[in-house]
Amino acid sequence: MSSSATAAVPLAQLACVVVDDNEMNRLALEHYVGITDGLTLAGTFANGIDCLNYFRSGGTADILLLDITMPELTGLELVRILPEPLPDVVLVTSHRDYAVDAFELRVTDYLVKPLDYARFSRTVDRIRSQRAALAPAPAPPEAAETMFGTDGNALFLKINNRLMRVNFDEVLYIEAMSMYSVLVTPKHKHIVYATLKTFEERLPFAHFVRVHRSYMVNTQLIEAIEDNQLQLPGGHEVPVAKAYQESFFKRLRGI
Asked: 8, exposed or middle or buried, with CB in 10 Å at 0-12, 13-18, 19+?
């Protein structure tokens, strides 16, 4: 007997980081991540400081499952100092009194202990829905092929279905965003249908250097470097990941 059933479309993988100083709570969250389709565990920490060091050294996550009441660095304090771009932050606590503080920090959700898988699953569905709503509409397939047209220090890039001239002397950095990249200038952000790897391979300007899994930076516009954070005009900061530090600083010495 033939079947007309259609194979399920696999979910996009979302990487999770768990932070809780209570081992039982931490293990429960790790278990929930492990049994949920489309979630992977990128890291787990017993305190906020280790988590902060993970992100400052170039670690990434889509979802941060974060306890609030921890010694030395609370969850709320951690959210305030995490480097951009922030993951979807889900605060996990036994105290309902923190709800107002939590939403002032623009966290995605707030789970109250004892943890309940049904509530956890609804939070994951909410995150997926929000991400789908914010995702840019796909550009036509030819966009990646026709995006590069040179003109001195500028390129003609296909942005929103039209070729636009972008002066790369003004581009502060390029940030990865799934199959797209974001070109950040002091006044604008341009979303281009091309991966960061494509820019790294085809960008004809030697002063753009990969410094992180998610960033290329214009070395001519770096104002200062502090704690492996590149300071750029307008208060922008870009982290230098540990894996890129040696090649980056060697490149700087040669400028």
From this structure: exposed
Q: List, for residues 18-52, the tens digit of each pLDDT value.
A: 999 999 999 999 999 999 999 999 999 999 999 99
Q: Is the pTM of this model over 0.85?
A: no
DSSP-H helix ranges across the chain: 23-35, 48-56, 75-81, 99-104, 117-134, 143-146, 196-202, 242-253
Domain ranges within the chain, ordered by starting residue: 14-134, 143-253
What tokens appear for 14 in the block?
């979302």
Give, as one character, the DSSP assignment of residue 58.
T
Rounded Cα distance between 109 and 105, Å, is 11
Q: Which is it for the CA torsion 237, 227, 79, 26, positive or negative?
A: positive
CATH code assigned to 14-134: 3.40.50.2300
- pLDDT digit string, tens, across residues 64-77: 999 998 999 999 99
Instruction: Name 162's bridge partners.
Output: 159
Supply the CATH classification number for the domain 143-253: 2.40.50.1020
